[in-house]
């Protein structure tokens, strides 16, 4: 049975947390303040520590600082319990080596989910790569080599199946992990002050997501929502940091990925400002196919040279009208009208929510 140390100075809160964890069941050790928490940690060597931040005498930051310098307890997973949401407070904790946060008030499902996920990930590994960790090697290969290397990445990290519309993270949240889309589709969304949504990016199988906030050590500036049921691999931020700190080639690769995303976003904004909606719809159709239904370039070239008419035809693509609208940056009614025009001109076929590209060449020419 796993042992969890709960350090919380509010008796009612501490008792409630302990009761929920004991029902799970876990063995629970309780401490009423930071100083007592240090003593209990050294006595019991817990598998996980839940610790409040605001406590008299020795606060949560002090507890974490002391434990991270103790060789016997330095790798024990550590989750802060806090009612604070300011970015500066999150940054302090993450810089000290916290693994996660739980914002008060939280329900029993949220608590048990965070505990289970952290225990599955195991203790924090040191950032010294001399140990030649198998999972770090796998992560390095997946980042640099892609293709086959990415397929085996989730053998070393926990993979979770999420339902459609699940949000991997939301704007303003603090990044604690890198996400890898093992299977599925998602969208990157920004929302303006009055609630209008704009899709700034699409995520498909084999993509990493969430690394922008990890690299800048700042809260998320967007939200990632799944477009279908998906399998997502969760990689602790400490593993990515280990590679970035010790392997410049990995840092360079992420810098290139980030630069590419910035360039693509700038291009999208420019087209939003000056392109007609008709051209933006054509661009969106080709982008969705490119991201979610890619075909090998060698096959496309061979089909085209051989005169195969299927070269210009895609697999049926499924996306809601609202998502097409958010991706194009125009009203739903306008996008539906233009899709109807493209169907009448023989460029696409529409069957319910499914759209099939019938002529890539015409669509590509249209968006120029």
Automatic annotation (TrEMBL):
SMART domains (UniProt xref) = HTH_CRP, REC
**PTM annotation (4-aspartylphosphate): residues:** 52
Task: List, in alphabetical order, the GO biological process terms annotated in this UniProt record.
Answer: regulation of DNA-templated transcription
| Any matching Pfam family | cNMP_binding
Q: Keyword Ribosomal protein on this protein? A: no
> Which residues are in the HTH crp-type domain?
275-361
GO function term, MF aspect, one: phosphorelay response regulator activity
CDD domains per record: CAP_ED, REC_OmpR
GO cellular component terms, alphabetically, are: cytosol; protein-DNA complex
Q: What organism does this protein naturally occur in?
A: Spirosoma endophyticum
Q: What is this protein called?
A: cAMP-binding domain of CRP or a regulatory subunit of cAMP-dependent protein kinases
Read off the InterPro entries from this record: CheY-like_superfamily, cNMP-bd_dom, cNMP-bd_dom_sf, HTH_CRP, RmlC-like_jellyroll, Sig_transdc_resp-reg_receiver, WalR-like, WH-like_DNA-bd_sf
Q: Please report the stretch or stretches of sequence annotated as the Response regulatory domain.
A: 3-119
Identify the keywords attached in UniProt to this record, alphabetized: DNA-binding, Kinase, Phosphoprotein, Transcription, Transcription regulation, Transferase, Two-component regulatory system
Keyword Phosphoprotein in the entry? The reply is yes
| Cyclic nucleotide-binding domain segment(s) | 146-244
């Amino acid at each position: 049975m796993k042992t969890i140390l709960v350090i919380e100075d509010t008796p009612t809160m501490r008792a409630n947390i302990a009761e929920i964890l004991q029902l799970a069941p876990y063995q629970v050790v309780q401490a009423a303040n930071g100083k007592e928490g240090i003593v209990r940690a050294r006595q019991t060597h817990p598998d996980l520590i839940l610790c409040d931040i605001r406590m008299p005498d020795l606060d949560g930051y002090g507890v974490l600082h002391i434990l991270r310098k103790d060789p016997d307890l330095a790798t024990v997973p550590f989750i802060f319990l806090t009612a604070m949401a300011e970015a500066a407070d999150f940054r302090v904790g993450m810089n000290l080596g916290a693994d996660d946060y739980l914002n008060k008030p939280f329900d029993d499902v949220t608590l048990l989910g965070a505990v289970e996920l952290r225990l599955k990930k195991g203790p924090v590994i040191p950032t010294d790569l001399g140990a030649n960790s198998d999972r770090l090697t796998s992560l390095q290969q997946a980042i640099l080599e892609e293709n086959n290397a990415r397929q085996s990445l989730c053998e070393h990290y926990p993979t979770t199946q999420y339902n459609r519309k699940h949000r991997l993270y939301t704007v303003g949240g603090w990044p604690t992990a890198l996400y890898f889309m093992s299977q599925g589709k998602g969208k990157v969304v920004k929302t303006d002050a009055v609630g209008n949504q704009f899709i700034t990016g699409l995520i498909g199988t084999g993509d990493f997501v969430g690394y922008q906030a990890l690299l800048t050590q700042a809260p998320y500036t967007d939200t990632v929502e799944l477009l279908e049921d998906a399998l997502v691999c969760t990689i602790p931020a400490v593993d990515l940091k280990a590679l970035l700190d010790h392997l410049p080639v990995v840092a360079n690769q992420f810098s290139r990925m980030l630069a590419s995303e910035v360039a693509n976003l700038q291009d999208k904004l420019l087209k939003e400002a000056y392109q007609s909606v008709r051209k933006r719809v054509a661009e969106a159709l080709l982008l969705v196919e490119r991201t979610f239904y890619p075909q090998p370039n060698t096959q496309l070239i061979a089909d085209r040279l051989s005169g195969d008419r299927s070269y210009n035809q895609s697999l049926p693509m499924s996306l809601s009208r609202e998502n097409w609208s958010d991706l194009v940056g125009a009203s739903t009614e306008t996008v539906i009208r233009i899709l109807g025009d493209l169907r009448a001109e023989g460029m696409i076929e529409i069957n319910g929510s499914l759209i099939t590209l019938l002529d890539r060449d015409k669509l590509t020419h249209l968006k120029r």
